[in-house]
Amino acid sequence: MKVICVNGNSLTLEDLVKVSRENYKVELAKEAIERVSKSREAVDEFVEEGKVIYGITTGFGKFSDVLISKDQTKELQRNLIVSDCCGVGKPYSEEIVRAAMLLRVNALAKGFSGIRLSTLNVLIKMLNKGVHPVVPEKGSVGASGDLCPLAHIVLVMLGEGEAFYQGKRMKGFEAMKDAGIETVELIAKEGLALINGTCVLTAVGALAAYDAKMVAKLSDISAAMTVEALNGIVDAYDKRVHEVRPHEGQINCAQNMLNLLAGSKSTTRQGEIRVQDAYTLRCIPQIHGASRDAIDYVIKKVTIELNSATDNPLIFSEDKEVISGGNFHGQPMALVFDFLSIAIAELANVAERRIERLVNPALSRLPAFLVKNGGLNDGLMIPQYVAAALVSENKVLAHPACVDSIPTCANQEDHVSMGSISARQSREILNNVMHVLGIELMTAAQAIEFGAKEKLGKGTKVAYAKVREYVEPVENDRVFHIDMHECYKLVASHELVKAVEEEIGELK
To answer: What residue intervals traverse the membrane (predicted)?
Structure first.
């Protein structure tokens, strides 16, 4: 059985992917169990002593000055969950819900939240048995944590709400019963511990960042195929050029281009056909490299967040102290996911311009729209339109969400991050980018039919062959939507990157 052992401190992005997409099981490390138990003991002491502590013996938000009696603590926690279930929009995918559940488990495992071990184990059982709450995408402002979406997860723990189980959408209590998982009755601090954190927005953005890393590699591959078709000049990728401006992403991308094009008889040297290429070919390392560096930065920040305690208040059991802070605030993730959106949008921007160079006879020696009998056939005219539409949409989506803030909770929460919007936008942009790269692969492969087919480099030869497993060359007009969808599937599967790396080694 494939298992990820969770201790609150060492979860990796790869672990997140294994649990969310490959259904790895989850178990708590021994030291995490001890920390969780000590934290809960501290909370029980505070309740018995009648201490005034936010969210334990008081109301929430603007109601933090309202004292709650000991016999009302269960009702307080239940009311928090049901009143916060206000999400709208379509449900998050099961992989995102699983990722969010894992992140909440890992945050609670740090032992600063005061949850009972038995309650935490219910959440773990739901993950391991595949009970996935129905969580609407919209409704979080990314401060006070992802209150709304996380409440929808907890609602199923109470035997309410809805969940997906074994491919069916059903009532929460039915899913829990069918899976053989006991429901819970929350006691002091537990509701707040479960929903006061950045786990949903981080889950969405973290998976996008993971995929962006692969998409950056794929961008180099699709660009290299375009360079082949346009007899691109390889001097611009010479390592000496990049060593005197030593940005890591730029250096790595230039090396990737040289490795992909190694042995090509279609590429040229400066002065053979022309002195310089247009920027979309010549500046591939600088453009792709900048996005690569941004993606790496995002992943570093995400890895910190994966292993952070993001609720409030925090229980420091060793010191018998409770501190109200602001770790629930999503700004650290909102900023980086907005950055991620810009970085990956640029990969599509430059890819669309390369597509234009391939289909425009004024910019190449290739036939118009890469088809014989042009006029009778439109060829790949409209796929470029689609790429342009997606790139334009990305420019709208890449507007930073975190620069906006609307105060909530009667102005008690007077600055919010809107980080959940940042994360969702990065995911949507990434999907558009994958479509654009699919179109470039299809277009470049068609362009290669006109003279470069037998002259390809070591990496581009593999890439061309893989594309041809999905789409045939274009002789006459057909329903290109089908071809475009096939190339999107090739991009999304990561199969192309794996095939190329098997031939030339790992792309940097």
So the answer is: none
Same fold, 3-197 and 205-310+336-504: no
Assigned token pair, 119: 């309650």
Contact 149, 204 (CB under 8 A): no
Contact 285, 233 (CB under 8 A): no
The fraction of the chain above a pLDDT of 90, given in percent, is 81
Measured distance CA(140)–CA(216) in Å, rounded: 29
For residues 312 and 196, give the distance between their C-alpha atoms in angstroms, rounded to a whole number: 7
Q: How far apart are CA 27 and CA 25, in angstroms?
A: 7
Which pLDDT score is estimated for 415?
80
376: pLDDT strictly greater than 90: yes
Given a cut of 80, whether residue 53 has pLDDT beyond it is no
Distance separating the N- and C-terminal Cα atoms of the chain? 32
For residue 445, give the nearest of 258, 228, 292 by alpha carbon: 228
Neighbours of 226 (CB within 10 A): 27
Amino acid at 254: A
- The predicted pLDDT at position 325 comes to 87
Q: Which residues pair with 323 in a beta bridge?
A: 314
Bridge partners, residue 165, by sequence: 131, 168
Residues 54, 92, 237, 488: which is the catalytic one? Answer: 54
Residue 312 backbone phi and psi in degrees, to 5: -155, 135
Architecture of domain 205-310+336-504: Up-down Bundle (1.20)
Mean pLDDT for the stretch of residues 463-470: 98
Note the pLDDT tens digit of each residue in 260-275: 999 999 999 999 999 9
Give the start-to-end residue ranges of the domains of the chain: 3-197, 205-310+336-504
Average pLDDT score over residue span 30-59: 85
How far apart, in whole angstroms, are the C-alpha atoms of residue 155 and residue 77? Answer: 11
Alpha carbon 140 to chain centroid, angstroms: 17
Two tokens, residue 402: 């975190």
187 is written with which tokens? 């006691």
Count the alpha carbons within 13 Å of 10 in the hemisphere toward its beta carbon: 8
Is 343 in contact with 294 (CB distance < 8 Å)?
A: yes
Q: Is 92 a catalytic residue?
A: no
H or E element, residue 169: strand 168-171
DSSP 233: B
Q: With cut-offs at 50, 70 and 90, classify the pLDDT of residue 68.
A: low
Indicate whether 500 pLDDT > 90. yes
Tell me which of 242 and 417 has the higher pLDDT. 242
pLDDT one-digit tens code per residue, 13-27: 999 999 999 999 999
Residue with tokens 């950056």: 216
